[in-house]
Write a structure and sequence with these properties.
alpha+beta, Histone H3 K4-specific methyltransferase SET7/9 N-terminal domain, 15-stranded antiparallel sheet, 15 strands, 227 residues, 3 helices, 2 domains
Length: 227
């Protein structure tokens, strides 16, 4: 679902760019001198979308605001007709991204907050690549069965993959390796009552012996070697 949201975000912006390029070329032919002389222009396109901002060489370049026909809005920097640099994207469901852009997609550091829907009030702060969580980041669940959980660690293509720590709302903590969103590899899971599961995890399941954190290694040695 989240991939779809980002895909729609990117697709809408790219589609709008294509639509606008056609319109710009038409305007340029009709009134080339006006286009070239304008630094800031307010344009409404045939698909009812609107751009207000700076132009250069017949393209969106500089600071501007793009409002798509569906009401989604981008406010920020443009380069060569695409969102590039710092910018803010807000859609009609209240989803909001604030951060760095490259070629029309979130790339670099940014914050995405979900509005209405399944992921309401969830928040991601961290690195992005081509519209997906990619690199070091923090994801906080704001609703649903995971409400209050916080993951801090590495993401790969929108999924927890690599080393990370998840602090669960009930007080449990997992520290270790992840793959495709699940604990996978070496890790330590500590419960609120002091139980520790340390060792190998696979697809979210603990597959090694459960260790009792109340037992001290020295006590174990003394029991095995009474003399």
């Amino acid at each position: 679902m989240k991939n779809l949201l980002l895909l729609l975000l990117s697709f809408t912006l790219i589609f709008s760019c294509v639509e606008k390029k056609t319109e710009i070329e038409s305007i340029k032919q009709d009134n080339k001198d006006t286009i070239q002389a304008s630094k800031v222009i307010d344009t409404i396109y045939s698909d009812s979308s609107q751009y207000v901002g700076e132009w250069k060489d017949g393209k969106r370049n500089g600071q501007g605001t793009q409002i798509n026909a569906n009401g989604n809005k981008y406010i920020g920097e443009f380069n060569n007709d695409y969102p590039n640099g710092q910018g803010t994207y807000i859609d009609t469901n209240g989803n909001k991204y604030v951060g760095e852009w490259k070629n029309g997609q979130p790339n670099g550091k940014g914050t995405y907050t979900w509005g209405e829907g399944q992921y309401k009030e969830d928040k991601y702060v961290g690195k992005w690549k081509n519209g997906q969580h990619h690199g070091q980041g923090t994801y906080t669940w704001g609703s649903g069965p995971n409400k209050g959980d916080v993951y801090v660690g590495v993401f790969l293509n929108n999924k927890k993959t690599g080393f990370g720590t998840c602090n669960y709302a009930n007080g449990n903590i997992y520290v270790g390796e992840w793959k495709d969103g699940n604990s996978h590899g070496q890790g330590t899971f500590t419960t609120t009552d002091g139980q520790v599961r340390e060792g190998l995890f696979e697809n979210g399941e603990y597959i090694q012996e459960v260790l009792d954190s109340n037992l001290n290694l020295e006590d174990i040695i003394r029991d095995d070697n009474p003399e």
